[in-house]
Amino acid sequence: MKKSLIALGATSALAFAATAHAQSSVTLYGLIDAGLTYTNNQGGSSNFQETSGSVNGSRFGLRGTEDLGGGLRAIFTLENGFNIANGKLGQNGLEFGRQAFVGLSSLQYGAVTLGRQYDSVVDYLAPLALTGTGYGGTGAAHPFDNDNLDNSFRINNSIKYSSVAYGGLKFGGLYGFSNSAGAFATNRAYSVGTSYSYGPFNAAAGYLQLNNSGTDLNSGGAVTNDATFTASTQRTWGAGANYSFAGATVGLVFTQTVLGNLTGIGASASGTSSGLSLGANSGRFTNYELNARYQITPAVSIAGAYTFTDSQIDGVSPKWNQFTLQTDYALSKRTDLYLQGVYQHVSDTGNSGIHAVINGLSMSNSNEQIAVTAGLRVRF
């Protein structure tokens, strides 16, 4: 009798463990992007260098879910960014600098998550721009990644809502707390976004506002040492659409970033060791992007974009013209080779110290810069 009870108990325990395992999962995933880059001008000299993340930032992460029943799940993501060329942590040395959040997800109502997260412009609008995809990535970002479509910074202390799809419509919003007693609005952030898909047609829009990002006010706030700009306010909004047909996709994206009391552009964005210091003036970037990609064969694709950026910075009105072209060959579903070229020309910079600077590279000392990268990406 005792042996029968023991056997029954063991069987029940194994069945429970199997059920629990089926209802919960943790996935290790990642992407490694390594390349060789030639640049015609970095600080006055040409350069040939090994690069990490010329298209997509190298990363690895853990993603987990637990089924709580009734269509409700607990979810989490911990994602690390790193430089494959030297092994250093990305995002200014943060252990999980790309993403770190936990929350609840409902099949009916969407998800609510808390932690360090992407803003709504990144979530909804960026996938329609070449920089927000694997077809252009880092190098295709608009000057200084002024609209954050390349996800140069994340939002700390944030709570986010993401809806499920309602007939092709999705929407969401995020709020990043200042976490400072007596200074609720000092270094906070908020954003909203939406997207709509109907067959081959996709459209999206988003809005983001930052207060005191990059300043020395409240270093524990929503955007800290990875801020693109040092300004009292940053307001970014934009919209875009694309259409797919016969293996091709063409799209348009418009964004505008308006800055109050702009005093600097961060080192990572400006391509200089200490960043660019500017007068305490208002600033503006208006970007117009036309992009396209075509799947020549199941393994070979080609993509390109042209972006015109009109701006007002530090009493001058720089104008950028940037062209990006990429061809990609898939060795498998996980591994591909790419060749990408970027050309940027800037005019009307006056004595601001602003020169051509392709995202992810050091600044040129002239009004133009050319970069060509041959790279390898592996996903797991």
Automatic annotation (TrEMBL):
* Keyword set includes Metal-binding: no
Q: Which GO terms describe its molecular function?
A: porin activity
List the record's Gene Ontology CC terms alphabetically. cell outer membrane; pore complex
- Domain Porin, which positions? 10-348
Q: What is its main location?
A: membrane
Q: How does it sit in the membrane?
A: Multi-pass membrane protein
- A GO biological-process term: monoatomic ion transmembrane transport
Whom does it interact with, and what assembly results? Homotrimer.
What is the name attached to this protein's record? Porin, GBP family
Q: Which organism is it from?
A: Paraburkholderia megapolitana
